[in-house]
Amino acid sequence: MRNKMKYIPNDYYEKLSEGVRNELLEYRRTSSLIKRKEKSLIKKLENIKILQKEIRLLKSEETKLYNNVKIFTDDFVPIISIVQNKKGKYIYWNCIVKIRNTIKSIYLGNDKKVRDYIKSEFDMRYNSSVQSIKDKFRYEVFDNITDRITDNYKSFMNEKLSLEDIL
After folding, report:
1. Domain-embedded: residue 2
2. Residue 15 belongs to what domain range?
3. E strand or H helix that includes residue 127
4. Can you give the pLDDT of all 167 residues of the chain as single tens digits?
5. What is the pTM of this model?
């Protein structure tokens, strides 16, 4: 706690020596400077509180807006692979979609069904290479799957899809 000086009457003040008067003036000047700085500090603290409140409101608005545009983040860009698997003497095709660290496998059909579809829809040879079939499917499937994911991610992950659905 600061020590405060009491009021000094003018006639008593005039009787003081020059050095004491200067010290008294210096003390009063310093005291008034401290008061001004404290008031300034209080105003700045109030401004800081107002700014913090504005920042909180802006952050909540940012969160609401982020939920509307989060489909454009890296987590929502699907990685699509077309794979050919062998089980015993049967060959079948799958489309693997990896998104947000979850994997969805879409059964495309057996080898004969896939090659018939490629031949009829894309006018490719029946005995086309596995790589050319994969490339063609990946190209055709990407936009359709991306659209389904952006429309409703949860329903896409729960929905049972087939070759006809994704092409």
Report:
1. no
2. 10-70
3. none
4. 466 677 777 777 788 888 988 888 898 899 899 999 999 999 999 999 999 999 999 999 998 888 777 766 666 778 899 999 998 889 999 999 998 788 999 999 898 898 888 888 888 888 888 898 888 888 888 888 888 887 787 888 888 888 888 87
5. 0.56
